[in-house]
Every structure is written in C-alpha cells, then in structure tokens.
Amino acid sequence: MRPIVQISLDLTNIDEALDTARLAMRAGVDWLEAGTPLILAEGLHGVRALREAFPSTPIVADLKTMDGGYLEVEMMAKAGATHVVVMARAHEETIRCVVKAGADFGCKVMGDNMVCDDMVAGAKWLEDLGCDFVIHHIGYDERRGIAARGQRMPSPLDQLRQVVDAVKIPVQAVGGLSLEQAIECPKYGAPLVVLGAPLTIDADAFKTADGDLEASLRMICDAVHSQDVG
Ligand SMILES: O=C([C@H](O)CO)[C@H](O)[C@H](O)COP(=O)(O)O
C-alpha cells in the first residue's frame, strides 16, 4: 500500500486553512484534516469551505466526538467530511453510534486512543467496535505539561509497533512527532502520515508555520510516497 499524507489544519480561520490546504495539495498531500481548533473557530463552515474548494479530496473532521455520536457524524458528513474521529474514552454506546452513523452517511471512522490507560488495548477496543482506522495519539496538553516539568515527553512512536501489531486496521501516529519521525511512520507499519506542528503549524500560535512550506511539503510527500507498507 502506498502511504498517505494527511495535513492537520490546526488553524483558527477558514482563509488561512484554505491557503494552507491549496499549498499542501499542490505539494502532493493526499488528505486534509479540519483540525479541532478550526472546527471550534468556524464550526462546520470550515469543513464545508474545504469541501467546496476540494471536491474530491478526503477530509478528516477532527471533532473528537465524546457523546451524541450519531448526530455529530450526520452533521459532519453532510458538511463534506469523509472521515470522523471518535475517542476511545467515550462510552461504548457512543462509539457504536458513530460507527452506525458512519455506515449510514458514508463516512469512515477513525478511533482515537488518546489518554487510554492502556493505549494498545484502547486501539484493539476501537477496532472491535468497528472503527476503520486507529489514531494512536499523545495529546497536546499531556506532552506540553510533561515537557514543562522537565520530564521525558512520551512519543506516539514508543508504542506504535505494538499498536500496529495489535490491530488489522490502518494506524496513524499523532502528537509531537518531528518531521523525520513522521516520515518514518510507514516503517513501523503505519501507513497514514500526519503532518502538523512544527512543520506546518506553529503550535503556540495555531498559525501556519513560516518558511517555504510548499517546498518542504513536496519533499516530505515524495519521501513518504516512495515507501511501501505491506
Ligand atoms: O488533535 C490534536 C490535539 O488534540 C489538539 O487539538 C492535534 O491535532 C495533535 O495533537 C497534533 O499534534 P502535532 O502532530 O504535534 O501537531
């Protein structure tokens, strides 16, 4: 399988999200993610704007559903999302509702194991409940809090191999990866490479990062796409 590159648009307005998305698509990015900050700032108008501008591109709506799963998926799908995100820490019934709504509205479901006590078991749980993908995720606050206390920051790579081995569905690793680490994800058997901070997004300001982003993204896309995931 050819690995997929997804860019997290963790931005706070539609214009900037569209500008960054245009540049990312020119560079060869495969999937767009309407990040949580974008959905909070712009609501589903953010997803709609991306769908209008990119009619055939997969769009992940990272709303991190915790409750009211059926309606949230229905709304995201009608706004143009092809992929939605439900949290493993949500109630089992919520995950089931999200999976049902995904089937009813033609959306793929990504289950996020962030803050599970046992992240490998969390990934398996998401697969057993019918999710199509696992997001193996070390959260933003967790990482920054631990770093601020001078301790070693946990990385999604620490357990990525175990998560990949525990499930049959595709896995993506998210949270604090360097560029080099993100490019390496297919070597762990994770075919979905997510690009966020610090390359594309300034994680302190939730703004597009400075520099020649298009050229950097093109280089990364080439490096990822040249790999093969069995
Ligand atoms: O989902 C995210 C987080 O929970 C804040 O909303 C971020 O998209 C995710 O943590 C991104 O991390 P980086 O890959 O380090 O940008």
From TrEMBL:
Stretches assigned to the Orotidine 5'-phosphate decarboxylase domain: 4-209
UniProt keyword annotation of Transmembrane present: no
Example GO BP: 'de novo' pyrimidine nucleobase biosynthetic process
SUPFAM superfamilies linked: Ribulose-phoshate binding barrel
Keywords: Carbohydrate metabolism, Lyase
Lineage top rank: taxon: Bacteria
Top-level class of the enzyme under EC nomenclature: lyase
Gene3D superfamilies documented for this protein: Aldolase class I (3.20.20.70)
UniProt protein name: 3-hexulose-6-phosphate synthase
UniProt organism field: Rubripirellula reticaptiva
Taxonomic classification: Bacteria, Pseudomonadati, Planctomycetota, Planctomycetia, Pirellulales
